[in-house]
UniProtKB/TrEMBL annotation:
It is found in: Nucleus. GO terms for biological process: fat cell differentiation; peroxisome proliferator activated receptor signaling pathway. Its main location: nucleus. Transmembrane segments: none annotated. Interacts with ESR1 and RXRA. Interacts with PPARG; in a ligand-independent manner. It comes from Odontophorus gujanensis (marbled wood quail). Keywords: Activator, Differentiation, Nucleus, Transcription, Transcription regulation. InterPro entries: Coact_PPARg, PIN-like_dom_sf. CDD domains: PIN_FAM120B-like. This is Constitutive coactivator of peroxisome proliferator-activated receptor gamma. Functions as a transactivator of PPARG and ESR1. Functions in adipogenesis through PPARG activation. Residues 645-667 are annotated as: Disordered.
């Protein structure tokens, strides 16, 4: 997240810090200096996804095949220059940054509300100035890069630290990203993703040496400078008094400077005049109003100290807080073999969310493109909660002698103030004979175990009775069918028209290239279809979590959105279906799709009928959804400590939606 205003400061006030560089030339020079080593750039992927997502359409749920091609072209451009890329993704939200994470999520909520208001008013996507990342884009970007053969790392702590450490330890050619913290770490050169011209491989390199020169400091001063101007560890509100003293003793050197620029220069001036010693740091800690956080400055300084580095401000025996050694001792999972495998899969981007649950029992989910004023569709966080409760049980129940610990969730949805995590009770899925333990699901071999993995996966979505029919389908279609059936059971407002649109989407998507999908033009954009697209894509991440927990009954590649979803194509199918178009038009005149369409639809309706869910026809015609009435919180959504979950969304149904509602059954 970096140091507020520092990136703009170097651009406006210290232009010498910003050097235009040719990455091809730097790669050639790196190769001459290190003849036996391929030039490597380590990429802070989370600061790049916004730049990577360039398809014209972004509100409809994601143009995933287009996006995959864009990532492929990005990789090829560097490969042609002989540069290898290593991609790092945030694997955790550290507790010290939780407040900032919440603040950003709340700001995103406002942006998304404005976005939906625009779509309802104008029936089209707004300009790029209102751009919001498609739901789950970072998650699927990680798997996309891995599928393209790239080294992809999911971190155990804040990504910027691991990126800087990797750059230093592997003598990398540079770091590609957009985070001013990379100006502070003493590591590889820092290249800008925002200034990158991919065709020429030219970008801006931010020079730490020139920043030091402009501030009158040395490299060893930069971590203290970052802490005293305010960063992710030391909040700005504790520093106002200190800044005032600095400004009094060092008035602004230029009347045109804004206050932030004057503060940066004044703090640098103060630092330049004190000895580089631990006693100086202690004196500063005593001077600042840190309250009970007396070692805050010390911790902030340590956060920039990479493995093998020392600082004159910190005693050498103080130890670096950036270690992961205590994780295993405090983990919810006590089985070393399971914990280690989950950790390895996490780092190598081979699983999803499982390690976060096993290590500290905590999970977060960022904003989705959901219309908070649409009272008929619950937040995706609530729709998929019953499935997550079963997944938590699969992961944690065998660890605590049958007494499952609660899982802390930070999920963004309407009505959740995010003041504290919601405590979610794991719920045992109904499986005759009981849930297999993780040792069996993850390590055992043989056809019987494969069947157990598949049936446990389906049980998380209450679909184990449809196992035979689902196994007969191609894996991506089976997974999609599982998700769609679950959605139909959970959300009673979903209609036959919605079902037809989703089934037509997955069948017509086959064989279409990214270029074909890019050329698809929409007459208008429907806000309800935007919402449903986001819900569907978030559902795919729930499939990833269940698949990871159950020992991979599916290949992760079969659960990717580019296999089963395209935002614009779904909009087209949704609008045609709700205009009651013919089956021929819905399936693009492809007669070979008629039978598969009827078979998939019949399977889903049959499963729903058995569970007392009748899917009604409810065409919405040409009109876009314009619901503006305020949603009222259903009090049942707040009952997060329940031991079992009865879906609150079946207000149009009679009877229990699940045929085998026995989550508390004995093993």
């Amino acid at each position: 997240m970096g140091i507020k205003g520092l990136q703009g400061f170097v651009t406006r006030v210290c232009p010498d810090v910003c050097r235009t560089v040719d990455l091809k030339e730097l790669a050639e020079k790196h190769h001459i200096d290190h003849p036996n080593v391929l030039p490597v750039i380590v990429v802070d992927a989370m600061s790049c996804v916004r730049r990577w997502y360039t398809p014209e359409s972004w509100v409809c749920g994601g143009q995933w095949r287009e996006y995959l091609t864009i990532l492929e072209n990005f990789i090829e451009a560097f490969k042609a220059a002989g540069i290898e890329l290593v991609f790092y993704f945030d694997g955790v939200v550290e507790e010290k940054k939780r407040d900032e994470w919440i603040k950003r999520r709340q700001q995103n909520n406002k942006e998304i509300a404005n976005l939906f208001q625009f779509i309802k008013t104008h029936r089209k996507q707004p300009g790029r100035e209102m751009f919001v990342l498609p739901s789950a884009l970072p998650t699927f970007t990680r798997f996309a890069l891995k599928s393209l053969g790239q080294k992809t790392v999911c971190t155990l702590q804040e990504a910027d630290f691991e990126v800087a450490a990797y750059g230093l330890q592997h003598n990398c050619m540079g770091i590609l990203g957009q985070d001013s913290d990379y100006l502070i770490y003493n590591t590889s050169p820092y290249f800008s993703i925002e200034k990158l011209c991919l065709d020429k491989l030219v970008t801006v390199m931010y020079s730490r040496e020139d920043l030091c020169h402009a501030l009158g400091l040395s490299m060893m001063h930069l971590p203290l400078f970052a802490c005293l101007v305010g960063n992710d560890v030391v909040p700005e509100n504790l520093l106002e008094g200190f800044w005032h003293k600095c400004l009094v003793t060092c008035p602004s050197r230029n009347k045109s400077y804004n206050r932030r620029t004057s503060i940066l220069f004044a703090v640098a001036n103060y630092i330049s005049k004190i000895p580089c010693s631990y006693s100086s740091l202690k004196h500063l800690e005593e001077m600042l109003p840190l309250g009970s956080e007396k070692t805050l400055l010390h911790r902030g300084m340590e956060s920039y100290l990479l493995p093998g580095q020392q600082s004159p401000w910190i005693p050498p025996d103080a130890g670096n807080i950036k270690t992961f050694s205590c994780q295993e001792e405090t983990a919810m999972c006590r089985d070393t073999e399971i914990f280690q495998l989950a950790k390895e899969h996490h780092i190598q981007s081979e699983n999803y969310a499982v390690f976060n649950i096993l290590s500290n029992g905590e999970l977060e989910c960022s904003n989705s493109l959901e219309d908070d004023s649409d009272t008929e569709i619950p937040g995706q966080a609530l729709i998929y909660r019953p499935a997550r409760q079963h997944i938590y049980s699969v992961l944690l129940e065998s660890e605590k002698d049958g007494a499952c610990p609660l899982v802390k969730e930070w999920f963004v949805y309407f009505g959740n103030p995010l003041q504290q995590p919601e405590l979610i009770q794991p719920v045992r899925p109904f499986i005759p004979g009981g849930t297999p333990n993780l040792k069996t699901l993850w390590f055992a071999k043989g056809p019987d175990v494969e069947k157990q993995r598949y049936s446990t996966f389906l049980a998380c979505f209450h679909l184990q009775d449809a196992m035979k029919e689902l196994q007969a389908l191609e894996a991506p279609v089976a997974a999609f069918c599982c998700l769609l059936t679950y959605l139909m059971l959970q959300v009673s407002s979903l209609s036959l028209e919605d079902l037809n649109a989703f089934v037509a989407l997955v069948l017509c998507l086959r064989g279409k290239t990214g270029a074909e999908l890019a050329s698809l033009q929409l007459v208008q954009v429907d806000s309800r279809a935007v919402h449903l697209g986001a819900v569907l894509v978030r559902g795919l991440t729930t499939l990833l979590m269940a698949n990871s927990a159950c020992g991979f009954p599916f290949s992760m590649d079969d659960l990717m959105p580019w296999k089963v979803f395209d935002g614009k194509l779904f909009q087209e199918k949704y609008q045609k279906s709700h205009r009651s178009c013919s089956l021929e038009e819905l399936l693009e005149g492809n007669e070979s799709l008629y039978a598969p369409f009827q078979n998939l639809k019949s399977l889903i309706c049959k499963v729903c009928a058995v569970k007392k869910r009748t899917i009604q026809s409810r065409p919405r015609g040409n009109g876009c959804n314009t619901g503006t009435h305020q949603r009222e919180l259903n009090p049942r959504f707040q009952q997060t400590h329940r031991s079992s979950f009865v879906s609150p969304y079946h207000n149009q149904m009679r009877g229990n939606p699940w045929r085998n509602p026995q989550p508390q059954g004995k093993k």
